[in-house]
Each structure stands twice: as structure tokens, then as C-alpha cells.
Amino acid sequence: MGDRQRYKILDKLDAGGMAEIYRAKAITLDGFEKSVAIKRILPHLCANPKFVNMFLDEARLAMKLNHANIVQVFDVGRAQDTYFIVMELVEGRNLRRIFQRLSEVGQRFPVPVAVFLVTEALKGLAHAHERRDGDGHSLGIVHRDVSPPNLLISHSGEVKLTDFGLAKAMTQVELTDPGIVKGKFSYLSPEALDGRAVDYRADIFSTGIILWELLANRRLFLGKNEIDTAKMVEKAEVPSLTLLNDQVPEELDQMVRKSLARDPRKRYHSAQEMGDDLMQFLFSRGLKVSSYDLSEFLRSIFAAEEVAEEAITQERINALISEEILSLSMMRFSGRALPVDGANPIRLEELTRLEEGRISSSDLKGIAPDGLEGGRTRTQGIALVDMLEGRETVPMQAVNTPARRGGMPVGAKIAIGIALAGATGVGAWFLWQNFLGSLLGF
User: Fold this and answer.
1) Which end of the chain has the smaller Cβ count within 10 Å, N or C?
2) Pick from 154-158, 281-285, 326-330: least confident
3) How confident is the model at residue 47 (pLDDT cuts 50, 70, 90)?
């Protein structure tokens, strides 16, 4: 995909109904590299010439946008019968994933942090809405798809809008085209749903939905199916935030309601106006919020997830080790041959030193336990601690035992294996596997 001399694909980041996103490196002629994201349009969409033409037109417009709160588009290309765009790589998560995480941990966005996040998104929208060409004419850019998947938050707390290059193309193809508008009704404006011409106020309505959901910690327009959802959007009935979140004052509730007015003429006149009102709300209450606060909040809710993933991994390793130890213990009492060619059952008398499968203090000290046949001496009973630390110098072949594998008594090997099982980490697990293979002869 793409010019192999210019872009090197590293791994796949995400996939959806319209495109796949890859992490890649842009390589210059001088060998300099830059991390980028490449969005590859799914081939079946490229069969629609109308979609392709509008995608290319809008992608060219997106390349004209240069703002800190908008994901930069660097390049547009074609490869393997499909089109792709090269974009700024944002190391972080989209707002949809953050919503999911909040639901998992039972938390909600702090009001100041939620307001800050939306004001940052509005800065990006204001830049796009007000962008003009070289002659001073408005480009008339409207995102048309402001929704949680298209709001990216970096690990540093930067808020960036994405998918300006696809928005217009996506909303103007026939609604019957597969994978185009599915799941999008929840964030459409009433006029867009009715098929009327839309302008920047449609983006304000969508942004208002996101702010309402951040503060209420629930979805606003979500029915049992897309038809029910569309009816809810058409009615544009908005429950009071003050009833759903006691941290939301009436003043802020009214700002959100204004952005969600069913009649576009009653909404904010611009993204800048809405952003100014929200910032004034924070300033009037002495609420200092920055990208640092947003970053710290996200780190706190995802930290537990990372710890849980590590715990699950270690738990699986421990479970595998426990299963092997249990299997080994069962072999001691089974007295039957293993279902492997050349494998013989371990005889009970060979495991005398383990005393019911556990290492005794006598084993650790190298003292022959009472009742051991032949009255073995300490030299014959090899101290496990000395052996593991490299201090035992008695040649293994000098130990007189009826059963040996690879020059070491079976009992000593089992003791070493159980000691390895007590270690943690993947490395110890591989040592344990190798030990079992040596013990069983395969």
C-alpha cells in the first residue's frame, strides 16, 4: 500500500466500515523518518465514482487546514485500487474509547475537564469554518461528522478533530451504500437528518451533543434502532443536565441547550462564540483547567486497565505452571505409561526424597532423610541450594541412583523444576518447559 519508497507500514491501528488505519513511517530521500498515520479507504467504496471524486475534493480542502486542534493531512495517494490519506499520528485514544472506559470503571468526566475538552474541539471547528482561499472567499468547510470516534485525545491531553477529508463525501453518497451512515444518526443535526442544506451550525449541534453526554455520562439520542434514534434527533428533546448531574449549574445547562436548539437560528452563531461562553464559565468560577489536567484524568482511569492486563498475563502464566505441577503429581500416582512413544511411568521409589511431592528441609540441607535406602550420605544427597548456586562440586555421575535422565537423578530434577516454578515471568516459564522436556525425555 502506498509508495514503498515513501511510506513504510508498521502495524494496523484500527478498522471500521469505511477505512483501515495503519501506523507508518514517512521516509524522505535523505533517509529522515517521521511517524504518520495512513488511512486506507476500503476497496468496495472506491467502486463508487461519486464517492471517490468527493473524497478527493474534500481531502484537498483538508490539506489546507493547519491548526493545533485538527489532525493534519499531509498527502493523498492511490495504491492497489484504493485511495489513502497520510495524516498526523496522534498517540492516544479517541473519545468513544474513553466513554467506554468511563462506563467500565463507573466514573464520569469532571465538569471543568469536560468543558475544557469541548472548548479545544471548538477552536479547531472555528478554524475550519472561517478558513478562506487566497482571494479571501470562504471555503465553506463543514465537518458534518463531529462525533466521539473523530475526536482524538493524545496522551499529553491535546484534543484534535479528524476526518475532515471524509466528512462531506460520507454524507452525500446514497444512504443505501453499505457502511456509510450506520451508527451516525446519534450525532446528526435535525436539518441534516431531514436532508436540508447544512452549514457550520450543524457542527455546533453535534458538538453540543458531545458536551451533553460528557456531563450527563449517558447517551442523548440513542433508540432501539436507527429509526428510533432518527426520531429522537428530529424531536431534539434535551433532558435537563442539572437533574442528571448535581455538579452542573443552571448557567452551563443553558449553554448546552442553546447549542442543541432544534432551530439552527436559535443556536450559537459560531463555534468561536460557543467556545468563548464556555471559557467564560470556567473563568468566572476560578476554574483553571489545561491539557495537563485532561492528561492526568485519562491516565488515572486507564492506569487500572494497564495494571489489570499485566495481572491477567501473570495469572495465565501461573495457571499454566500450576497445571504442569498438577500433571507431574498425577503421574507419580498413576503408574501408567505416558501416551508418548518411548515414555515410561515414573516409579514411586524414585520419588522418595520428595515426600508427597514437596521439597523437605532435608533436601535443602542435603541431608539424607531417615529411612532412605542404603543410608545415603550428604555427598550422595546433593544439597539443592549449593547446586543451584554453583557450589556443589561432586560429579553427578558419582551419585548412585537407579533412575537418571541426562546425568541427574529424577528426584533432583523435579526439585529444580518446582524451584523454577516459583519464579515469575515468561523466562521462568520457558525454563520450566525445558526442564519438563528433559525429565520426560522429549
Assistant:
1) C
2) 326-330
3) confident
Q: How far is CA 314 from CA 37, 429, 437, in A?
A: 32, 11, 22
Phi, psi (rounded to 5 degrees) for 72: -75, 135
- Tell me the domain boundaries of the chain: 91-289, 305-440
Strand ranges, E, within 247-384: none
Mean pLDDT over residues 416-438, rounded?
49
pLDDT confidence of residue 179: 37
What is the average per-residue pLDDT within 322-329? 58
| Residue pair 76/1 in contact by the 8 Å Cβ criterion | no
Q: 16 φ, ψ to 5°? A: -145, -165
Q: What sign has the CA pseudo-torsion 267, 272, 274, 277?
A: negative
Q: Is the pLDDT of residue 439 over 80?
A: no
∠ at Cα 68 (65, 69), nearest 5°?
85
Q: Tell me the C-alpha distance between 143 and 166, whole Å.
A: 9
What is the layout of strands, in order, in the sheet containing 19-27? Answer: 7-15, 19-27, 33-41, 82-88, 73-79
For residue 175, give the DSSP letter: T
Residue 332 contacts residue 357 (beta carbons within 8 Å): yes
Tell me the C-alpha distance between 414 and 44, whole Å. 59
Residue type, 279: M
Other Cβ atoms less than 10 A from the Cβ of 264: the count is 19
Distances (CA, A) of 233 to 68, 178, 197: 31, 22, 16
The whole-angstrom separation of Cα 165 and Cα 144 is 11
| Separation of alpha carbons 71 and 73, rounded Å | 7
Q: Is 199 a catalytic residue?
A: no
User: Distances in Å between the alpha carbon of 64 and those of 61, 72, 75, 197, 441?
Assistant: 5, 9, 11, 23, 68
Residue 160: what pLDDT?
97
Per-residue confidence (pLDDT) for residue 27, from 0 to 100: 84
The whole model's pTM is what? 0.65
Lowest-confidence range among 51-55, 194-198, 277-281, 329-333? 329-333
User: What is the average per-residue pLDDT within 168-187?
Assistant: 52
Annotated catalytic residue: which of 145, 253, 277, 363?
145
Q: Give the burial class of 315: count Cβ atoms within 10 A of its Cβ; 0-12 exposed, 13-18 middle, 19 or more buried.
A: exposed
β-strands 82-88, 33-41 pairing: antiparallel
Q: 237 by DSSP, 3-state: which? A: coil
b/e code 146-167 from CB counts within 10 Å (16+ = b): bbbbbbbbbeebbbbbbbbbbb
CB hemisphere CA count around 310 (13 angstroms): 8
* 91-289: CATH number: 1.10.510.10
